[in-house]
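Write out C-alpha cells for Outer membrane lipoprotein-sorting protein.
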Amino acid sequence: MAQTAEELVAKNLAARGGAAALDAIESVKFDGTVIFPGDFQLTYEEVRTRGGDVRVDMALQGLTLVQGWDGRTGWRINPFEGRKDAERMSDDEARSLADTGSIRGPLQRAASLGSTVTYLGREDFDGTNAYKLKVTEKDGDEFVYLLDPDTMLEVKMIETRRIRGAQQVFEYEFGDYEKVAGVYFPMSVESWAAGQGNNRQRTIIASRTANVPAPASLFALPASPAAAPKGN
C-alpha cells in the first residue's frame, strides 16, 4: 500500500506514544555517558523543556563543557579550550542545538513550524527496508529520516544545514528506545560528520526522568563576571 508523508508522520507520532503523552511532558532529563573518538568518555547530562529550551553538560576530570539555548540565545562554556566564561553561539550553531534538543524533534514539529515533509520512498538500513522522509524547514535546513517499518521509530537521520556560511552534513543513528512518561526516546545515539563514519561520537543514556525542575535560569546566558554586581 502506498504511503503518504502525512500518514508516516502520524504513524511515527503514534509509535512514539501519541500527541497527548508528548504534550504532557513539561521537561525531560537524560543522564549518561558520551564517548568521543579516541575513547574519551565524559559524563553527560541534558535537560529539555516543552517550550524548546535545552541545556547539555559534559564533564571530564573537573572540567565541564556547557551548551545552552533559552529560545532566544545559544551559548557555550568550553573550558577544554581555555574558556571559563559563557560565549554566545552564532545563530546557525544555536539553531542546530535548538533543533537537536527539542522534545518532539524536527519531524514532529514540522507542521507547527510550517516545514515541508516529503516522502522519498524506501531505503535499506541494516537489511531493513526503511521509510524515508525529508523535512525542509523554512530557513533551508534539511533533515532526512529513516523510519523502521516495524516500529515506525526513527533509526537514522541526516542533517544538512549551513553553519558560518558553509554547508555541513551530520549523520545520526538511533537505538535502544525506552519510554519516558509514556514517550519513546532513543537511549543510544551515534553521530558523525558525513564521510567520517569511522570517527563517531556515541551518547549512551543510563537514566531518564520526566517533568524535572527546569527554571529559566538553567538555560539563560550566564552573566559575565565583569557584569556581575560587586560582592557576588
